[in-house]
Specification:
The strands form 12 sheets. Strands 26-24-28-29-22-31-34-35 form an 8-stranded mixed beta sheet, with no helix packed on it. Strands 6-12-11-8-9 form a 5-stranded mixed beta sheet, with no helix packed on it. Strands 1-2-3-4 form a 4-stranded mixed beta sheet. A hairpin with a 2-residue loop joins β8 and β9 (134-135). It has 5 domains: 2-75, no CATH class; 87-178, Immunoglobulin-like, CATH 2.60.40.10; 185-258, Immunoglobulin-like; 266-422, Immunoglobulin-like; 458-519 and 535-625, no CATH class. The radius of gyration is 45 Å and the shape is elongated. It contains 5 helices and 41 strands. It is mainly β. The termini are far apart.
Length: 631
């Protein structure tokens, strides 16, 4: 750099010497450089002109000769002998800077976390500043840096530059420390507390504080973590910890206080002042939403008002809950707008084709759902979903698995069971070897698609000489084939069933009536019935049917269960067709299921149930009955 300056200086000396000689011969005329102000100089397009390097001017503002070095204008009148070296480059503070922040990001020194730096270098014209290699928009000798409150090391780097592009540099290291937030967790795994029992909650680090969001549901000792249940419901337990630096963190977990299922005897019976859902059904491969909606809880009885809670109370051994398998409940996505997006309206009849498949709507939630019955929320409504299909499903060896959800509601709290079944295989209800299908027979030896659907009607007695079952549709007055009235007919109904199945006999039907109180009347959420408006049946029974005018009609019904293992079987109340004319009767009120047995020549055995009871009876062979096959 200095060599270049010396050459330019010599050229200038030579230039002026020649001018002096010329001046001695021509005193009137003189050789002059372009005389420009700084503004005029900067208007010369030297940047885009490759021949501009070496251009000389006389700057009238500073009375100096300047030349263009290809990058910028250089003044040479200040030091005709060449540019000086930049000396003594320093940055203050010139040692490592350490700043400390607390866990909230506030500077411990009580300031805003900024540090000022000053660079000094002899012969420097301007400075460039860099933070961690990134150039800052600062050219002065001072630089203020706002420190990030993230622990780590940062480099502050300054470069001094003079007119001849001579440079020098210096740097400072900045260390930033920050107090860490403690890692706090609730180490006990419980999310459910049985009413009347206590839980010992634990958390880390030790020495923290416990609180309960709803002490009317459960209290908790602030130091020991002993949780004591007070009533049914949900409370949020929080464990917080503050360390020696004053840093605090916490974890919160919901605790559901539910009835002790082992102590439930007569409890679990559905309410009698409203129609409720008594169960929910999924095929083995299904997991999608089932919608539980109990209408008019507010208006039916003042005792039904107040908070409600649904929670999972029991699983059989086929649920692998330790690996996250099980049931999820949620009270989300049940408002009118969310339901309408799925083609569901409980106040408007919608064509089945417009209603979305339940499998398209999975439930995300937990082991409980909560809500309140008041003027603004007059129904109880929530969703049930499953986390996984029934693995290793087999129609005989692994037909289904079962669980129980408890719904508590009202003031004082009342309890209702909702029985859960996943799997469509025929299963044993009470001992023995008879396995009951969950589906009614339709026509052409086919099952219906859903447990709530009625299917077709069958006569025990055929016209003399008839050997082929004659299924009749579940609704309507136009019958095909034409109705036959023959109370003396006798023919095995085995040929009416799907291959591998048959019609049950009296003794087998009697097995599902083994104990008093082992059946409930109500709705059944099977992914069909629960997604449609509930209307009156064709025989005028209010609030009993969906898709009431078509062959896929589904009904309210009766759920039979084994109180020991909670195995369940649902029968829709499809009514029957009268033997004299084939007229549909009592649909939505009675279930009439034919048995392949009879002790009288003009009668047959059948399972008969209605809203408040069930029994085995005998009616005319010419009636049309529902048919539930066994194997």
């Amino acid at each position: 750099m200095k060599t270049t300056n010396y050459i330019i200086t010599l050229l200038l000396i030579l230039f002026f010497s020649m001018n002096n000689v010329f001046a001695q011969h021509q005193l009137i005329q003189g050789k002059k450089l372009p005389r420009l102000t700084t503004v005029q100089r900067d208007q010369i397009d030297v940047i885009n002109n490759n021949n501009a390097k070496g251009q000389l001017i006389f700057n009238m503002d500073n009375n100096c000769i300047e030349y263009w070095n290809g990058k910028k204008w250089i003044s040479i009148c200040a030091d005709i002998g060449g540019c000086m070296e930049i000396k003594d480059m320093t940055i203050l503070p010139n040692s490592t800077v350490t700043k400390a922040f607390d866990c909230n990001g506030d500077a411990k020194q009580g300031n805003d976390g900024t540090v000022g730096f000053k660079a000094t270098a002899a012969e420097a014209e301007y400075y460039e500043w860099y933070v961690d290699g990134v150039k800052q928009n600062v050219t002065t000798d001072t630089f203020t840096y706002i420190l990030p409150n993230i622990a780590g090391t940062h480099s502050i780097y300054a470069v001094a530059i003079n007119p001849c592009d001579t440079v020098a540099s210096a740097s400072v290291t900045v260390n930033i420390t920050r107090d860490t937030i403690p890692v706090v967790s609730i180490t006990s795994s419980e999310t459910i507390a049985l009413f009347g029992s206590n839980l010992n909650m634990t958390g880390t680090p030790s020495g923290g504080l416990w609180t309960s969001s709803a002490e009317s549901v459960a209290t908790i000792d602030s130091s020991t973590g002993l949780l004591v249940t007070q009533s049914l419901g949900v409370t949020y337990i929080t464990y917080s910890y503050t360390d020696s630096n004053g840093c605090t963190d916490y974890e919160t977990r919901p605790i559901v206080v539910q009835p002790n299922v082992l102590e439930i005897t007569d409890d679990g019976t559905p309410p009698t002042d409203v129609i409720t859902y008594v169960g929910a059904f999924w095929r083995a491969g299904e997991t999608g939403e089932r919608i539980i909606r109990i209408k008019n809880m507010y208006g039916s009885n003042a005792a039904n008002r107040g908070p409600w809670q649904a929670s999972v109370a029991w699983y059989d051994s086929k649920w692998n809950t330790s690996d996250g398998d099980g049931i999820v409940l949620s009270s989300d996505m049940v408002d009118e707008i969310s339901l309408a997006e799925r083609g569901i309206s409980y106040s408007t009849l919608i064509q089945d084709i417009m209603i979305s498949d339940a499998e398209n709507h999975q439930v995300t939630g937990g082991p409980y759902a909560v809500g309140i019955v008041d003027e603004n929320h007059q129904d109880i409504i929530f969703r049930i979903g499953l986390k996984s299909p029934l693995m290793d499903y087999h129609e005989i060896d692994n037909p289904a698995r079962y669980a129980v959800v408890l719904l508590s509601y009202g003031t004082p709290a009342k309890i209702q069971k909702i029985f859960i079944r996943q799997g469509e295989g025929a299963d044993i209800i009470f001992g023995g070897i008879t396995r009951w299908s969950p589906y009614n027979m339709n026509d052409n030896k086919n099952f219906v698609e859903y447990p709530t659907q009625a299917g077709h009607f069958y006569q025990y007695g055929y016209q003399q000489g008839t050997t082929t079952p004659r299924p009749y549709p579940p609704v309507g007055t136009t019958l095909y084939p034409s109705w036959l009235n023959d109370e003396q007919g006798s023919y095995s109904l085995a040929n009416a069933c799907k291959d591998g199945y048959r019609t049950p006999v009296h003794s087998e039907m009697n097995t599902i009536l083994q104990a008093n109180g082992n059946s409930f009347s109500g709705y059944y959420a099977d992914g069909f019935f629960d997604r449609r408006q509930i209307v009156a049946s064709q025989t005028g029974v209010a609030n009993s049917a969906v898709s009431a005018t078509g062959n896929n009609v589904a009904y309210i019904g009766r759920l039979f269960f084994n109180p020991t293992n909670n195995v369940t079987l649902f029968f829709p109340a499809a009514g029957y067709r009268t033997g004299s004319s084939g007229t549909l009767s009592t649909a939505g009120n009675d279930g009439c299921y034919v048995a392949n047995s009879s002790s009288l020549s003009n009668r047959c055995d059948f399972l008969n149930f209605w809203g408040s009871g069930a029994l085995i009876s005998m009616w005319p062979r010419s009636n049309g009955y529902s048919l539930r096959p066994v194997r």
